[in-house]
C-alpha cells in the first residue's frame, strides 16, 4: 500500500487537504496527538456600556401612608344665611321656677294666715277687710303715735268705714283708753283730713263734735266709738293699721 492510500485510510480528512497529488512530499509523517487543554485565561476587560433597556411593567400599588399633621387654620368664611324659624320649644326653666315660686308663695300665705289666726285669738290684732289693726296698750301723744306706727311699717289707725271703726274700738275697750286716729284738722281747708291730704269722707263724731273750731287739731276715739276733736298732746292709746 502506498503512502497515498494510507493517508486516505488513517487521516483521510487531513490527507485530502495536505496530501495533494501534485505535492506528495508534503504528507510526510503522522500528525501528533492533540495536547492537553490549556488553563483558563484571565477575565477579559469590561465591555462597552450597553444601550438602555426597555421600561419595565408598573409595580403594585403600595399601602396608604399615615395621616399628615393638621394644617394651619384657613381664613374666616362669610356668614351664612339665616335659617327658617323653628317650632316653638317646650316650656323651659322659667315655668318650673314659676311653679316653685307658686308653691313657696302658697306656703308663705298659709303661714301668714296661721299667724294672723294666733294673734287674733289672743286679741293682739283686729282685722277689718284687708286691714289689720294692732295695739300694745301704751300711752303717748299724737306725734309719738305717728312715729311708733311708722317705725313698724304701718300708720296710725284711720277708720274709713264702720267695720274699721269697730276694729279700733275693740282696742279702746280692751285697754280702756282713748285712742288717737289718723285724722287731723287742716288750717288750709278748715276740714279734717287723712295723712295723705284727702278729706275724711267717713266720720263718726260724737254729739256736738267737732267743736274745736280748728283749735283742736287731732281726733280721739272714745269708749263708745264716737269721735271728738282734741289737742294732740294727750296721752292716748296708740293703734296702728297695716
Ligand atoms: Ca272737741
Automatic annotation (TrEMBL):
It holds the Pfam family Lectin_C. One of its GO terms (cellular component) is multivesicular body. Coiled coil: none annotated. The lineage of its organism: Eukaryota, Metazoa, Chordata, Craniata, Vertebrata. Residues 37-96 are annotated as: Disordered. InterPro entries: C-type_lectin-like, C-type_lectin-like/link_sf, C-type_lectin_CS, Ca-dependent_lectin, Collagen, CTDL_fold. Keywords: Calcium, Collagen, Disulfide bond, Extracellular matrix, Gaseous exchange, Glycoprotein, Lectin, Metal-binding, Secreted, Signal, Surface film. It is found in: Secreted, Extracellular space, Extracellular matrix; Secreted, Extracellular space, Surface film. This is Pulmonary surfactant-associated protein A. Residues 1-21 form the signal peptide. The keyword Disulfide bond applies. It comes from the Eukaryota. Residues 51-76 have a biased composition (Low complexity). Belongs to the SFTPA family. Residues 78-88 have a biased composition (Basic and acidic residues). In presence of calcium ions, it binds to surfactant phospholipids and contributes to lower the surface tension at the air-liquid interface in the alveoli of the mammalian lung and is essential for normal respiration. Enhances the expression of MYO18A/SP-R210 on alveolar macrophages. SMART domains: CLECT. It comes from Hymenochirus boettgeri (Congo dwarf clawed frog).
Amino acid at each position: 500500500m502506498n503512502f497515498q492510500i494510507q493517508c486516505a485510510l488513517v487521516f483521510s480528512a487531513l490527507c485530502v487537504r495536505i496530501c495533494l497529488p501534485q505535492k506528495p512530499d508534503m504528507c510526510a509523517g503522522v500528525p501528533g496527538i492533540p495536547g492537553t487543554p490549556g488553563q483558563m485565561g484571565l477575565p477579559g476587560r469590561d465591555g462597552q456600556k450597553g444601550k438602555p433597556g426597555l421600561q419595565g411593567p408598573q409595580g403594585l400599588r403600595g399601602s396608604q401612608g399615615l395621616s399628615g399633621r393638621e394644617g394651619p387654620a384657613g381664613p374666616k368664611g362669610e356668614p351664612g344665611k339665616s335659617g327658617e324659624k323653628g317650632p316653638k320649644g317646650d316650656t323651659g326653666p322659667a315655668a318650673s321656677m314659676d311653679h316653685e315660686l307658686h308653691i313657696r308663695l302658697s306656703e308663705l300665705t298659709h303661714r301668714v294666715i296661721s299667724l294672723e289666726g294666733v294673734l287674733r285669738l289672743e286679741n293682739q290684732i283686729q282685722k277689718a277687710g284687708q286691714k289689720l289693726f294692732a295695739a300694745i296698750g301704751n300711752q303717748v301723744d299724737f306725734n309719738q303715735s305717728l312715729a311708733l306706727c311708722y317705725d313698724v311699717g304701718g300708720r296710725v289707725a284711720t277708720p274709713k268705714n264702720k267695720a274699721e271703726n269697730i276694729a279700733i274700738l275693740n282696742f279702746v275697750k280692751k285697754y280702756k283708753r282713748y285712742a288717737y286716729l289718723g285724722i287731723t284738722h287742716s288750717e288750709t281747708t278748715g276740714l279734717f283730713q287723712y295723712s295723705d291730704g284727702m278729706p275724711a269722707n267717713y266720720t263718726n263724731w260724737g254729739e256736738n263734735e267737732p267743736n274745736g273750731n280748728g283749735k283742736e287739731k287731732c281726733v280721739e276715739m272714745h269708749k263708745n266709738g264716737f269721735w271728738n276733736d282734741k289737742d294732740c298732746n294727750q296721752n292716748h292709746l296708740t293703734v296702728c293699721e297695716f
